[in-house]
Amino acid sequence: MLIQQISSNRKExxxxxxEIEVVVGDDADMSFSFGFRSLTKLNNQTCSATTNFSVLxxxxxxxxxxxxxxxxxxxxxxxxxxxxxxxxxxxxxxxxLAFASGKSNVAIREIESIIQVKKSNNLKHQLSDIxxxxxxxxxxxxxxxxxxxxxxxxxxxxxxxKFKNNNMELATNYLESALKIDPSDSRVQMFLGxxxxxxxxxxxxxxxxxxxxxxxxxxxSLHANLAVSHLTLGNVKKAIAELRRSIELNPLNExxxxxxxxxxxxxxxxxxxxPQLEFFVKFNExxxxxxxxxxxxxxxxxxxxxxxxxxxxxxxxSSEPSNLNNIGLVTWKxxxxxxxxxxxxxxxxxxxxxGKDISVPLLNLTILLNEIKHPSKVVDIVDDCIKSEGIxxxxxxxxxxxxxxLIALESMSKYHKATxxxxxxxGSRFKDINNAIPIIVSKLYLSTAVNSNKDEFYKYxxxxxxxxxxxxxxxxxxxxxxxxxxxxxxxxxxxSSAKILVNNIIxxxxxxxxxxxxxxxxxxxRGEIEKGLEFYQSAISLTKNREFKTKIRQRMxxxxxxxxxxxxxxxxxxESFQKAVxxxxxxxxxxxxxxxxxxxxxxxxxx
Length: 607
Description:
Pfam families: TPR_16 (PF13432), TPR_8 (PF13181). This is Tetratricopeptide repeat protein. Keywords: Repeat, TPR repeat. InterPro entries: CellSynth/LPSAsmb/PSIAsmb, TPR-like_helical_dom_sf, TPR_rpt. TPR repeats lie at residues 186-219, 220-253, 554-587. β1 (21-26) and β2 form a beta hairpin. A 3-stranded antiparallel sheet has the order 1-2-3. The protein is built from 32 helices and 3 strands. It is 69% helix and 2% strand. The chain has helices at 66-78, 81-84, 88-100, 104-115, 121-133, 137-144, 152-164, 168-181, 186-198, 202-215, 220-232, 236-249, 254-266, 274-283, 288-300, 304-317, 321-333, 337-354, 359-371, 375-387, 395-411, 415-425, 433-450, 454-470, 475-491, 495-500, 502-505, 513-525, 529-542, 546-566, 570-582, 588-603, and strands at residues 21-26, 31-35, 54-57. The chain is mainly alpha-helical. Among the domains are: 20-177, Tetratricopeptide repeat domain (Serine Threonine Protein Phosphatase 5, Tetratricopeptide repeat, Alpha Horseshoe), CATH 1.25.40.10; 509-607, Alpha Horseshoe (Serine Threonine Protein Phosphatase 5, Tetratricopeptide repeat), CATH 1.25.40.10. α14 (274-283) runs antiparallel to α15 (288-300) and α29 (529-542) runs antiparallel to α30.
């Protein structure tokens, strides 16, 4: 059955991507992570090296104004300076208070003064920490190089400096030196695991993280790191389990919460993460990532009123175009199409003003306009976007926008314009064959059921037939290709070519309504009319879309009429064509074709 199989009610919620963090150190001595990549960029089939990453310091804030408290204590201790200035422990305390009260220069001066005359690794570590905090990496390295090489923390810090400068070889050398000192040190194993992960050595990363977990069983970050490692190897179940454990240990770990939510969403377990997200935003009300994902989970879990409340919280934090898009979808689901239309139009315009990608709001807008029967507006909007330069639209979503555009043209019976559009964009716009397939399939649709152009059909069918065998394509796209090729062959009575595809279409029978209907046509053309009608009826019951039910039924009666006509059973042919013509919300071209056959029967007095 040849119907546009990009569902017209696929609506896209927008969420900002968050870079996955791999935590390298999460204790008092060393706290930092590096940005790995987002989930959409994460290759879950192979573990590959990350060549470009950003080192992220785990920031400490001062919500209770401790700086002023330490400042007062610093002034008290400073009064004892003359008496204890030669004591390394006193200078250490004084410098700590100076640093904590925002007086880094005083701390540096005092420590540099005393370590010239007294050896103290503790003070050197303290001085290196201040330099690291102030971004004076070269000075920090100079101090650390003066510490005994048997000091684990010194090796860790030097490894950090080399890691931050993307010198993985030297970072590894320092870590291996630390490992010789104490192979069970969780800080070393955690750092080494992160380094392995960045180099694409994921099995080694898992081993190091597990060793670190033996002495750091309460580390939420370690379990999140394990999740990322498993995910890069394609072990989704293990990744989810590790993230669940990570969140149990720290329910406010945003890195783990966001990845957990995104991963479950990708697995279509839309509501599974709602409890964790609800707890997270309760105590972290300023997290845009948290509110976005909670709203998304509510939306796909059909809790639209709750989704609207979550989006309301989000709009208090930011005024992103994505918020307008998402609220537009929720109001759509709540039945207020007028408000929804307004939100989606504003989302597109706001995105254009901000120079942002308009893909998702534009797609949703075209779907809504088609749904409320305003196809001319869809055509005008898409035409304007195509003509305009500098508009950002993602290729995979542009493919779906094109489908909405073609649906609009079809409802206006502008088949020639649709053909011109496909010829122009199918070869030049799409780099990924998965994105081009729906447009090529639309070409088959026009060349068969609409224009009956056999040469045009076979021109494109050869390319699509090769795709099934030779290229790795999305399973849904493959199903679309198989179905439409088989329908085309049946349309042109090429039973031998259709028969070749039977084994390809069988896995989708009684699962996909369109493939099931096409197989019903195959059975009818082979003379098994009753069996064919059973498959058609199954197809009608499979689809939940009322319009699709009508179109499948109309096509069934049209094809049945043709079969009876070829058998010279003119009475049954006439009855079938009349039923096809009466389907008011069916295809216009199908109704026109049915009327042609009815006129033929009438003119020749065949009834």
